[in-house]
């Protein structure tokens, strides 16, 4: 495949994938056009079409479809927010702009407020992912008083390993009015102990049922079992991280496990190597992660 090839989006795959996630992975909440879905590598028109297809296919099958509408310019972000409302999405999420970066909390909130105002009836989530945006404003600071500025504020998608920051978000959420969704899959159990209300992550696309087992054990206060599930998940993630793990590799694993072709990533990302996929497959097999016993659904979102 040539490096300049611009792969078109394979829309029929979305319907197939909805069924797969619900039936095979026990995942009923979807976070669309985020990191895993390469939302920032799509044109605005493509982002609109992808969102429409997820909402259309998810109707009566999924509990929630949340659309990431963050962009480098406010106008496009507002357009996408408005569009999400028009098509009947269940919520919107926004990352911090990452070329010209907000220098402080107030500047960032001003940007987020303008986006939220374009779809005032939709629950609004701030997508905190400092490793990719480079915006390191702490989430606990941002949360403080945010509802006065953004009335539709619903919560955080917290994709960072700073558990002090996350814990302090939970601590100030006294009335439990916000959803605090954790996004570092290998640390989910620690975040649950601190009070995470849900999880959003890339590995739930193929380890959804395994993670549901951990959630169930945690709910039943069986910490020893929960820990054993978390360690098994960690063994896989730790292994692939050492091989070089990112969105491209996630796509290869999603294809491998689901049998649904996810296609290669877009430039500047490059396709995972066959060697990576073979090694990942062997590891999944050795951990017995390629079989799916029937289990209940959990409060998790896969990212697409
Ligand atoms: C940086 C990154 O991609 N983080 C992932 C995690 O699920 C991550 O892949 C996983 O914890 C393995 O490290 C998610 O937080 C991203 C995500 O939710 C998304 O696709 O928007």
TrEMBL record:
The active site is at residues 127, 157. The gene is Npl. The keyword Acyltransferase does not apply. It comes from the Eukaryota. Its EC number is 4.1.3.3. The keyword Cytoplasm applies. The lineage of its organism: Eukaryota, Metazoa, Chordata, Craniata, Vertebrata. Homotetramer. InterPro entries: Aldolase_TIM (IPR013785), DapA-like (IPR002220). GO terms for molecular function: N-acetylneuraminate lyase activity. This is N-acetylneuraminate lyase.
């Amino acid at each position: 495949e040539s490096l300049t090839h611009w792969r078109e989006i394979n829309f029929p795959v979305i319907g197939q994938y909805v069924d797969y996630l619900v039936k095979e992975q026990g995942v009923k909440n979807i976070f669309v056009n985020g990191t895993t879905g390469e939302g920032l590598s799509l044109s605005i028109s493509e982002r609109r079409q992808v969102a429409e297809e997820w909402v259309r296919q998810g109707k009566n099958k999924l509990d929630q479809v949340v659309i990431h509408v963050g962009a480098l310019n406010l106008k496009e972000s507002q357009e996408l927010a408005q569009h999400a409302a028009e098509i009947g999405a269940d919520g919107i999420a926004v990352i911090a702009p990452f070329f010209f970066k907000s220098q402080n909390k107030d500047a960032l909130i001003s940007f987020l407020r303008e986006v939220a105002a374009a779809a005032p009836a939709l629950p609004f989530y701030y997508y905190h992912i400092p490793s990719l945006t480079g915006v390191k404003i702490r989430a606990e600071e941002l949360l403080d008083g945010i509802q006065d500025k953004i009335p539709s504020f619903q919560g955080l998608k917290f994709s960072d390993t700073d558990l002090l920051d996350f814990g302090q978000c939970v601590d100030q959420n006294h009335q439990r009015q916000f959803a605090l969704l954790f996004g570092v899959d290998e640390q989910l159990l620690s975040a649950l102990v601190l009070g995470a209300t849900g999880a959003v992550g890339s590995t739930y696309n193929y380890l959804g049922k395994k993670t549901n087992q951990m959630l169930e054990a945690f709910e039943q206060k069986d910490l020893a079992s929960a820990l054993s599930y978390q360690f098994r998940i960690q063994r896989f993630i730790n292994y692939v991280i050492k091989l070089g793990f990112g969105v491209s590799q996630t796509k290869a694993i999603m294809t491998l496990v689901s049998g649904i072709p996810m296609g290669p990533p877009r430039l500047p990302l490059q396709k995972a190597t066959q060697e990576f996929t073979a090694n990942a497959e062997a590891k999944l097999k050795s951990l017995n992660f390629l079989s799916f016993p029937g289990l209940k659904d959990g409060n998790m979102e896969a990212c697409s």
